Each structure stands twice: as C-alpha cells, then as structure tokens.
Amino acid sequence: MLTIYITHSKSFDFQAELYHPLRSSQLNSEHKIILPHENSTAPFNSKELIQSGNCDLILAEVSFPATGQGIELGWADAAEVPIICFYTKDAKISGSLKVICDTFVEYTDSEDMIIKLQEALANAQN
User: Fold this and answer.
1) Burial class (CB in 10 A: 0-12, 13-18, 19+), 45
2) For 49-94, what is each residue's pLDDT tens digit?
3) H helices of 1-126, where?
C-alpha cells in the first residue's frame, strides 16, 4: 500500500472530477490517498508530508497551470518522491514538467483516468 498525495489546480471542479472518481475507485482501497482539499479549503501542509518521508508517490493532475502545485512538485523532486503527471486530452501542459517527471498519463474522462492511473501505478511499483 502506497501513501499517495494528489496535487492539482483549484481551477476546475476537483471535488467532482478528481476526488469523487478516486474515492470511488479500487485505488482508494489499495492505497492511502491524500486529497488536500477534501474536507477543508485551508492550505494543506504538503511540504511537511513530502519532506517527512511519509509520502511514497505524487499524482499530479496538471491539466491547469498552478503556481502552488509547481512549488509542491519542486519539493517532491528535491525529496526524490516519484511523480506521475496526468492530464486531460488536449490540455496544454507545461514543458517544465519534463524536468521533474518521466511518467505522463493522458486521459479522456474520469473512467479513463482511473484505468490509466491504475496501469501507471502498477508500472511504478515494478
């Protein structure tokens, strides 16, 4: 079981489009998934989580640019926490992500997102 931190922009309906599909999926029973704004809009201390060594993997929804997310990904890269970036088809993602991430997952809808994230996580654990 991995402890996975989910990072994302606040520029979309992340509760419906990201959190609900993740919590409803098999991934939720297989891993400890940390959703930073599931129960509060207050800032989440992701720096402490990442630097503590208690985070095994970052899943970064990168369809929308976000400065705070970039900072979190920098912390993860510095702490050598693996990062998987995922984004909606046709999203224009930042080229800078290639510096800190080797695994990119493109998806079309929430069902496709879950299937592809399951595959990416299986590959990451091998």
Assistant:
1) exposed
2) 999 999 999 999 999 989 989 999 999 999 999 999 999 999 999 9
3) 14, 20-23, 27-30, 46-51, 67-78, 97-100, 110-125
pTM of the complete model beyond 0.90: yes
Token pair of 123, please? 């590959």
**For the chain, domain boundaries:** 3-125
Classify 80 in phi/psi space as left (phi over 0), alpha (psi -120 to 50) or beta.
Answer: left
CATH for 3-125? 3.40.50.450
Cβ-count burial 46-83 (b if 16+ within 10 Å, e if not): beebbeeeebbbbbbbbbbebeebbebbebbbeeebbb
